[in-house]
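Hi,

Apologies if this is the wrong queue. I'm a grad student, and the batch job for 1-pyrroline-5-carboxylate dehydrogenase from Aliivibrio sifiae produced an output file that my downstream script rejects. I'm not sure whether the problem is my script or the file. Here is the sequence I used:
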Amino acid sequence: MTTITQIIDSALSQGHAEWAEHSFSQRVEKLLQWSNHLAEHPDFGVLAAKMVHFQCQRALNLIAETELMPGPTGESNELYTAPRGVFYITSDNKASVVAIVGQITAALAAGNAIIVALQNEEAMIASVIVEGLHQANVPKLTVQQVNATETDVDDVRLAGVCFVGSKQKEIELNQQLAKRDGLLAQLIAETDQERLANITDPHFVLRFITERTRTINVTAVGGNATLLELGGGNH
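Support response: The file is valid. Your script probably expects a header line. Output copied below for reference.
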């Protein structure tokens, strides 16, 4: 039987790496293909598909391009974004499927791997979501589903936790994450399930990335270019 530790291991070592190797356009293409699958669902399909398109468009505007920054003669400076790692997606009972889809889309568009662990009635919906992503050729280790009762959000390898549900549960999760050892993990929560105020924020996708800079110095002694890259990881 596969344990949650093994699932996180595989998401980090294979799922995240394989998905991050895809170009931004390749990732969006697969997510839009997934939206076509979602659109067929009679209950939430149309709105969920629209949410996928919205998040992909915002990601296209905000993180798709590398930005060239000013620098001295003989030096090239670039600002770009990179994924954070593995995000855990969870919910309360009767959570908004559209909100969950929005979190999943933003996380994947940014290049992260995800572990989906929805509660009770939403567990069946999770199966539909995960199956649809796999049918759209998103790698199986990039998107994995687990039983919500088996997942430990205290695992320091998780880059963050996405949650849709009540404010009380949001507070509990926030307190739990604050007690973790190691690097801080952010909680990305949506508790306004009518207006979806957080997920429809135009800059929502930025919660799932880290910024990095790349400097190439072409004036080094002997003409050798030296590369300096900062941001993310343990920098």
